[in-house]
Amino acid sequence: EETEPVEEVRPQSPVKPMTATEVKVNVSIPEAAERAAATGADGVGLLRTEHMILSLNQTPEKFIEEHSVDAYIKELIQGIRTVADEFYPRPVRVRTLDAPTDEFRQLEGGEDEPEEHNPMLGYRGIRRSLDRPDVFAHELEAFRRLYEMGYDNVEIMLPLVNDAEDVYRAKELMKDAGIDPDKRKWGAMIETPAAALSVEGMAEAGIDFASFGTNDLTQYTLAVDRNNENVADRFDELHPAILRLIGTVIETCREHDVDTSICGQAGSKPEMVQFLVDEGVSSISANIDAVRDVQHEVKRTEQKLLLDSVR
Ligand code: PEP
Ligand code: MG
């Protein structure tokens, strides 16, 4: 028997509270799947695929050149399956590749990456995917095969979209890849003010869910680099402007029967949990170590709302 690292054995209350708002978990590496599932989370609100790719130590293009397209697709399938198996039938929201060029540049083959003055404002997320549909098609082929294998709990989440146009274009590529968007659950991350203000069009484009990526939404709304310590004190995920954007999105989504969720770090903050539950968010996704606390905060907030409503 192996002993678990210290941070993995934090005591947890044995009783998972029942809540109307779902509480999910973020997973960044497939190896964490078992521990994530053990939290009792209602699913995975964000499965990052970057690690699956970056750990190959080659850019996708380089890996494909040295190995094969099929080997690339199999790497993705393997990573996603590990998590989808652990959670089945609980849903797993898999985000399509979202690494900035400065991270790709560290890899073998990275010298072919564009050199960008502002990688965070540059060639990443859905922008890259739509610009390189040939590469994106391999990711989508991985999803298609997973569906064919019966993983109907897998959902597709698109990062860094700005508007309905991005969503329509991605949807077309899904269809081209043999995925029926009407049969599968898929959605968009709300990470830019433009996205927040365009969610109605995205709903019309057919998204099933909108998920707040508050790490980026905060960075882009407040123009505060999330990795710059000089302005770290200005990185306020609870800034009234952010809350206003989030509130509007939740309201619009409710009118269009679109689920709402948060998968940014702010989802672990009690004040954010209270705000979101109050606004009627469908689910909150938190890091593994924060899930239990969020479950209890959600429960407390729901009870308070109930009491307030009968008072
Ligand atoms: C976010 O931006 O809040 C998010 C969840 O995505 P990432 O942190 O991977 O950019
Ligand atoms: Mg993000």
TrEMBL record:
Signal peptide: none
Superkingdom, natural source: Archaea
Occurrences of domain PEP-utilising enzyme C-terminal (ranges): 12-301
Reported function: Catalyzes the phosphorylation of pyruvate to phosphoenolpyruvate.
Family affiliation: Belongs to the PEP-utilizing enzyme family.
The protein, known as: Phosphoenolpyruvate synthase
Provenance organism: Natronorubrum bangense JCM 10635
Residues represented out of the complete protein: 465 to 775 of 775
